Amino acid sequence: VGNLGTSGENGEEHETSLVEIGETTQTIIERGLDELKLEEKPLDDNGGPEGGEEYAEPEEASMWTRKEINEFKDTIRKEEGEAIIKIGHGETVTVRVPTHIDGRSLYWEFATDSYDIGFGLFFEWVDPEDTQVTVHISDSEEEEEEYVTDEENPDNDGDAESGGRGLLVDNGPPTSCIIPIYRRDCHEEVYAGSHTYPRQGIYQLKFDNSYSLWRSKTLYYRVYYTR
């Protein structure tokens, strides 16, 4: 379980390891995972589809919600390690999750206290050096180029749940937008989702509070890989 937390200065990073989803958690989320149709695909030596392009268009992500938000928060509080992050006003938290050599897909779930927060998913087309999950806190100026708006996506390529796929972000390593950043009512429900690995690389889960001038947000989250 990639469980970690931070409340430090901008640019502060913390590490933990990504592990396979456990049987108990599988039972909790089986309703959501049952909706996914994960297809086995042959992979080349780099972890990508055989005969495919290096930066092939990623598949759509699946997202769903569930009502047990208080139970979810209690579980996060009781688990070993920290998976609770305080996101200051004007800040964006990026959770970087490398793919796992034994995994086929990424799974995540999150919730907040009292207020909504922006969420988006990106995929960095680089070979991960390890399986360490890291958290990076940045202010709104650092993240400005990666925020997907309606003006940048005039054709509405994807919706607020499945996202505009295949949009490359020019800032830094080649990065595809899987789910554009939209505000989520995750203070009312637990938001969860899954995405099939396009190849080996690094996922970026972005939790965006840059639009808030005064309010900090408390985020509860966890990430897994699934076979």
Strand content: 35-45%
Q: Taking Cα atoms only, what radius of gyration do you get, to the nearest Å?
A: 16 Å
What best-fitting shape do the alpha-carbon axes yield?
A: globular
Summed over residues and divided by their number, the pLDDT gives a mean of 76
Low-confidence stretches: 1-12, 24-31, 33-41, 46-53, 145-164
Biggest sheet character: 7 strands, antiparallel
Q: H/E series, N to C?
A: EHEHEEEEEHEEEEE
Helicity, as a percent range: 10-25%
Distance from first to last alpha carbon: 14 Å
Structural class: mainly beta
Number of helices: 3
Oligomer: single chain
The overall strand count is 12
Strand order of the largest sheet: 1-7-4-11-6-9-8
Descriptive overview:
- The structure is a single chain.
- The chain is mainly beta and 227 residues long.
- It has helices spanning 23-33, 69-78, 140-143, and strands at 13-17, 62-66, 84-87, 91-98, 105-112, 117-124, 132-139, 167-169, 175-184, 190-196, 202-208, 217-226.
- The chain has a 7-stranded antiparallel sheet with strand order 1-7-4-11-6-9-8.
- A hairpin with a 5-residue loop joins strand 8 and strand 9 (175-184).
- The longest helix has 11 residues, at 23-33.
- The model is unreliable at 1-12, 24-31, 33-41, 46-53 and 145-164 (pLDDT under 50).
